[in-house]
Design a protein that fits this description.
Length: 330
């Protein structure tokens, strides 16, 4: 099979594209002919040398995939050959990644793709959709009628947070860089959008939420606790899911006097049954049009190195060069 892979961690240029042996479908697994994958920041961290766990050799990057079942392993009863599926949680905890024509996946990490949803759409919402769902409902327990502020409403996770929060009846405030991204945030359901290229975000947020917000979802790699603690209502919750090397100051006094909660998490540590619950809601919202994939561009899998370069420019170098996900097709 053709695959994108690297033998040693390093810059995007270490990614090669060529032939690797087809994976074998073991007990409890499903062999998927991949129709689309998407790029996530964690893919670039791992490829860049973040020492989270031992990597397979060669290493195929990628967490997300969508495609068609071509073989079912012993003990698998929920899928049949020909079924369309999507999933995430690959390329993590020592599992091989998805940037290939074929991928052998434990059945517990796969979900049926809704009939009218393309592989590109399903792959684009996989990790970011599960992340948003876990953070909103398992960690922050967002309720109808509450107000949530999320940074970057057109980002991978941010766009999912905006739509899911709106789907359950929350009031959603977000930020965007420029008119086009601000308009997209409104199309996704945001009730208030702050253009951070022209407005002071803390001032504008206070104007939009004079009484504060119930949930503050931080996507920046350098969290601003002073802003968040000031904006949150009493008993508010702040969600953290980025910034692995950040060491920002925390205004301890205002934080505990307001009875706030700080909630951190990573999606890949959530058990399979919890991620399956997320996937069920995601499928329902995709099928009913309440959730839409936000895709910046679709590239051939052979351009995986370029995709990683673009993702790093956006995430690490803060060039804001993407509006949504990068999707690759074998």
């Amino acid at each position: 099979m053709k695959a994108a892979y690297y033998n040693e961690p390093g810059p995007p240029e270490v990614i090669q594209y060529g032939d690797l042996p087809d994976p074998q479908c073991g007990p409890g697994q499903v062999l998927v002919r991949v129709g689309a994958v998407s790029v996530n920041p964690i893919d670039t961290y791992i490829r860049g040398g973040a020492n989270y766990w031992e990597l397979p050799k060669p290493t195929i990057p990628g967490c997300d995939l969508a495609g068609t079942v071509v073989e079912v392993g012993e003990g698998v009863t929920q899928f049949q050959v020909g079924d369309r599926v999507w999933g995430s949680n690959q390329g993590l905890l020592g599992r091989q990644g998805t940037f290939a024509e074929l991928c052998a996946v434990d059945a517990q990490w796969l979900y049926p793709t809704p009939e009218k949803v393309s592989d590109e759409e399903a792959a684009a919402v996989a990790l970011v959709g599960i992340t948003a769902h876990l953070g909103l409902f398992r960690r922050a327990h967002l309720q109808p009628g509450e107000t949530i502020f999320v940074r970057g409403g057109t980002g991978g996770v941010g766009a999912m947070v905006v739509q899911m929060a709106k789907a359950v009846g929350a009031r959603v405030l977000t930020t965007a860089g420029g008119d086009a991204k601000a308009e997209l945030c409104r199309e996704l359901g945001a009730d208030g959008v702050i253009d951070y290229t022209r407005e002071d975000v803390p001032t504008a947020a206070r104007e939009l939420a004079a009484d504060g917000v119930d949930v503050f979802w931080e996507t920046l790699r350098e969290p601003d606790f002073d802003f968040a603690v000031d904006l949150l209502k009493e008993n508010g919750r702040m969600v953290l899911m980025a910034g692995r090397d950040a060491r920002p100051p925390l205004p301890v006094g205002p934080f505990y006097v307001k009875c706030l909660s700080l909630l951190g998490f990573v999606m890949f540590k959530a058990p399979a049954e919890e991620q399956a619950t997320c996937a069920a809601d995601i499928n329902h919202w995709l099928a009913t049009g309440k959730l839409k994939a936000v895709i910046d561009r679709v590239l051939p899998l052979s351009q995986a190195a370029e995709a990683h370069r673009l993702q790093e420019q956006h995430t690490i170098h803060k060039q804001s060069c993407l509006r949504g996900k990068i999707v690759l097709k074998p």
